[in-house]
Amino acid sequence: MSLAGKKILITGGAGFIGSNLAEHFVKQNDVVVLDNLSTGHLQNIEHLIGLSNFQFIEGDIRDLATCLNHSKDVDLIYHQAALGSVPRSINDPITTNQVNIDGFLNMLNAAREQKVERFIYAASSSTYGDSKALPKVEENIGKPLSPYAVTKLVNELYADVFYKLYETKVIGLRYFNVFGLRQDPNGAYAAAIPKFINKFASGEAPTIHGDGLQSRDFTHVDNVILANELAGTTTNPDAFGEVFNVACGKAVVLTDLVSTLKEELAQFDSSVSKVGVVNGPERIGDIKHSLASIDKISRILGYQPVTHFNEGIKKTINWYWENR
C-alpha cells in the first residue's frame, strides 16, 4: 500500500519520536499532530507549522471526544502519545495509567469508530519484564517490572482484542532504547544518551546507575521511522494484530557507550576526554541486559536497520552540538 496522499494523525507528535515521524511523513502526506505538550515541545515541530499540509492541535488523549473528533477523515494513526520513563511511572503510577491505558483505549476506539484504515502504535521493550532470555523474541515475555511496563503490556492486549473482535488493523512496534535528534536531555526522566551528551558537553560527570556493565540495544530514530513506514505500507496480512521488535539486534554495554560519546564529543571539545562518570545506585525496575531479535520484523515487514549505533551516535552528537 502506498502512503502517498494519505492523511496521517500522529499522537504525541511534538515529542521526540513523534516529531521525527511528522517531519518524515509531511514530505508526502497531510499530517495532523495531536499533543497536549505535557512532555512534548512546540519547538520540535515549529519548522513544520505553517506548511499547508501540516496541522497542530493541542489536545489530550484522555478526552474521548478529542480523540473521536480528530480521528475523523484520517487514513492512518501513528499513536506515539504516552508518559514514558520507568522511574516516572514508579513515582506516579496513576497518571501513567490514565495517559498510557485510558488514552490508548480512547485512541484505539476512535480508530475503530471512525473506520481508520490502520492503527500503528508505539509498544515498548519494557514488556519483556523479568524475562532473562536473550535475545528478546516477541512471543516470549516475562512479568512487568514497573507500572510503565504494565501499561505497555495492556496496550498490546487491547490491540490484540480489537483486531480479533472488530478487525481493526493494528500493528505494534516494540521500541528498544531509541535515541537521536530532538530527544530531550533535560529533566529527571531524561534518557541516558541525550543526558550523557549534555553533561559531558557541559564538563559535568553524568551518573551511571549501577556498575555500568548493563547493556542495551540502542536504536537510532532513523530505524524507528523506517519501521513505522513499513508498518504503514505493508500488504502482508501476517503483519496485522502483531507486535514487532524495532532495534538493531546488537547490545552495547554502558561503559562502551560512555567511551564512544566521549571520543566523539572530544572532536568538538578536547576537554571532554578528562570528564569522568559517577556510579550511583541501581534503579528500581531496571533490567540488566536488553538485546532484541529482529528476525520477525525482517521476515514480515522487510525491516533492516539503516543507521547503526556508531553512525547514529555521530549524527546525534553533531545535531546536539549545533543546537546547544
From TrEMBL:
Entry-linked Pfam families: Epimerase (PF01370)
PANTHER family: DTDP-D-GLUCOSE 4,6-DEHYDRATASE-RELATED
InterPro entries (alphabetical): Epimerase_deHydtase (IPR001509), NAD(P)-bd_dom_sf (IPR036291)
Broad enzyme group: isomerase
Keywords: Isomerase
Domain NAD-dependent epimerase/dehydratase positions: 8-247
Stated family: Belongs to the NAD(P)-dependent epimerase/dehydratase family.
Protein name listed in UniProt: UDP-N-acetylglucosamine 4-epimerase
EC assignment: 5.1.3.7
Organism: Parvicella tangerina
Molecular functions per Gene Ontology: UDP-N-acetylglucosamine 4-epimerase activity
Classification via Gene3D superfamilies: NAD(P)-binding Rossmann-like Domain (3.40.50.720), UDP-galactose 4-epimerase, domain 1 (3.90.25.10)
Cited SUPFAM superfamilies: NAD(P)-binding Rossmann-fold domains
Origin: domain of life: Bacteria
